[in-house]
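Figure 2 data, in text form.
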Amino acid sequence: MPNRKPHRKPSAVRASTPSSGTGTRAGADAGAGGGASRRRSARRLPPASAPAPAPAAAPPPAARAPSRKKLAHTRRLQAARRTADHKLYGLPNVVGSCFGVKHAGGVRTDQFCYTVLVTQKPAAHLLADSEIIPPTVTRLGRQMPTDVRVIGPLRREAGFAIDDGTQTGTVGAFARRDDGKYYALTCAHCIAGADADILIEYPNRFGLLLPLGVSSQAEIYSGTGMEPDFGEFDAAIAEVTAPNILQYVETRAALPVFQPDPTLGPAELAALLAFTPVQGWGAAANTILRGQIEGVMVSIQGQYFDLMITDPSGGGLTTRGDSGLLWTGPFGQAYGLHLAGDGPPGSSSPHAFACFAHRAVSRFGLSLLSA
């Protein structure tokens, strides 16, 4: 990230023409050099006579804290998982694992399983018996079948343009903070930190850069692989100060946030995976992306993520510029904030990785609003 500059400069938002589809849609799409080939997308800012602001969204209800005994038991099971995974990761091509659902003949089933992530999947006859992934493993105190999924190299799909428009990113949602001010939510690796000299672009019908505000807070830290901070945290907020944008944000409806059981045992994991359709608007994709939660509590190449999301059709999902996308579920709940993808540069990511949205809400004291 660039160093903080000695002066504050307003961020800006881009406007554009509407496109089809519904859902959370806000974002930055500032391609290299701020070139003219930037894609445009659809959300109209309010006219001068905008409707009266809606009542402020109430903060999400606090999750019921697990008992100290239950949380300690969960952490022991997670520690045992890491120990057992160490042996699993010694097998050829194995780079990670997560809790998921088994596939048979390329078709997703309802069977809860332990998904093993590999860089390639050679035929069994090319491997020694000791190199073959076992058909079952014991994790979280429960025996479960394994499933094998090929995954590419991880990559960030990052960043708002910093002055020269060389980076892109997405505003996943707006929010009201405990201080009564309004903010745009994205990833920390998309901006340069507090008071940064950045551009934040937001689609509007005019195709112009409009002032938004300045970045306020950005935090990124590695996941521990243990509750309560299992997956990587990567989130940031930018204060909305421009009157015309504030006029728009103040009318947005409250966005509910999914709050999982803090201990995430086998039963809770299976329930989470059973309600998997998610969608979100990405600035680079310039459309609503639709996926499904395919993995929870993901460990890959020494990194940890809360969620892994895939395209149900088997195609690619996100690309560079979609970081900050907010994945929402079938009932409009915010599930995850998109952090990274996989695959070679220039391609769509077959797998998208996210942190639970409730963690950003709790960390920054936010009540999310639709974008």
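Caption note: Residues 75-150 form one domain.
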